[in-house]
Amino acid sequence: FIVEAVVSVKTTLEPDSWDSSNIEKNRRTTHVMSKPFYTRTRAPIEPPKVIVTSYTQNTAILYWETPPLMSKVGKNDDGKPRYLRRYLQGYKLEINGKLQCCLAPDM
Predict the structure, then answer these.
(1) C-alpha 80: how far from its chain's center?
(2) What is the pLDDT of residues 23-53, one digit of tens each?
(3) Which percentage of the chain shows pLDDT scores above 70?
(4) How far apart are CA 105 and CA 91, in angstroms?
(5) DSSP result, 24-78
(6) Measured between alpha carbons, how far is 20 from 91 in angstroms, rounded to an integer?
């Protein structure tokens, strides 16, 4: 999210310019915005089930299905179901607790 402040700034310090007829002429509006603030929260999903389809002495061929990214979380006021949509960012392949590679979501 971003926080935006709208500030009205006086451009003169002369007291006779503060009357209601000149107030708009001697002011300017400034918009001040914060830097974007990003946050992440966990939206747990089922872990992918990995299947070893074949292997040799030096390699293994792995297969897994994309985990379900949509789940029903309740109903709205009209009684229609509400869903939580997740977006897959990628996979991390760890072997014996060590990161081996990161894969794109379409792998």
Answers:
(1) 26
(2) 667 777 888 888 888 776 666 777 888 899 9
(3) 85
(4) 7
(5) TTTEEEEEEEPPP---------PPPPPEEEEE-SS-EEEE-PPPP-EEEEEE-TT
(6) 63
For 5, the enclosing helix (H) or strand (E) is: strand 4-10
| Residue 52, token pair as written in the block | 């070893």
pTM attached to this predicted model = 0.44
φ, ψ dihedrals at 50, nearest 5°: -90, 135
Chain length of the chain:
107
The tokens of 17 are what?
Answer: 């310019």
**Contact yes or no for 99/91 (Cβ under 8 A):** no
DSSP string, 80-102: -EEEEE-----EEEEETTEEEEE
Buried b / exposed e along 7-35 (16+ C-beta atoms within 10 A): eeeeeeeeeeeeeeeeeeeeeeeeeeeee
Q: Are 44 and 71 in contact (CB under 8 A)?
A: no
